[in-house]
Each structure stands twice: as structure tokens, then as C-alpha cells.
Amino acid sequence: MTEENKPCPQCKSPYGYLSGSLMMCPECGHEWDPNEIEETGLVVKDANGNILKDGDSVVVIKNLPVKGSPQPVKAGTKVKNIKLVEGDHNIDCKIDGFGSMALKSEFVKKA
């Protein structure tokens, strides 16, 4: 891997290359700003494509069923002080009435 090649944050392909000011992946077509990736290491985006950071507040955009609970986390629920983690459910948080849980970033938007 040369100085110009960087791994794709989406598919992990080692063939990401610089195209103008953005990096591009020839395998999955993903484009990203190399400066954003360098800063955070972990990039998590909400349903609208906004980059989330530890400590942000988010709003749930659809009712989410919770195992072991008769009621879902309702759309419009505000979640404060999130923590970003690796994995499928990439947001750790505490929700009033439910306690600690993990959410997928695709079901929230930045508040």
C-alpha cells in the first residue's frame, strides 16, 4: 500500500485512491474525505448522512421494537450523550424507561 492508497472505511478494500480532494474505492464506489477518517478513526453517520460524534444527541426516526419489552422505543424519542462503538449496532446509549441499549445509526438523526 502506497502513501496515496488508503483502505475504504466502508468495505475495507485496501485499494482506495485519491481523486481530487476525496478518496474513492474502486470495489464498492464509496467516496470519503480522508481528513475526516484520519481524525476520528470510526465514522458513523445518521439516517441523513450527518457524521455523529461521541456525546451527540440524536432523535429516533421510527418505532423500534425492544426484546423483552411490550412497547417499542417510539419515533421522536431524544437520546442524549451517545457513545459510538464498532459493530452492527454502532451507538451505545441510555434511553429513559428502557435503560442501556445499542442502536443502529440508520434509525436516528442528529438532534
Q: Tell me the span between the first and last alpha carbons.
A: 39 Å
The low-pLDDT segments are none
The major beta sheet can be summarized as: 3 strands, antiparallel
Shape: elongated
In terms of structural class, how would the helical and strand content be classed?
Answer: mainly beta
**Rg over alpha carbons:** 16 Å
Strand percentage: 25-35%
Looking across the biggest beta sheet, what order are the strands in? 1-2-3
User: What is the tally of beta strands?
Assistant: 11
Percent of residues in helices: under 10%
SSE pattern, N- to C-terminal: EEEHEEEEEEEE
- Name the average pLDDT: 87
Number of contiguous helices: 1
Task: Give a short summary of the structure.
This protein is mostly beta strands and 111 residues long. The chain has one helix at residues 34-40, and strands spanning 17-19, 22-24, 31-32, 44-45, 51-52, 58-60, 78-79, 83-84, 91-95, 99-103, 108-110.
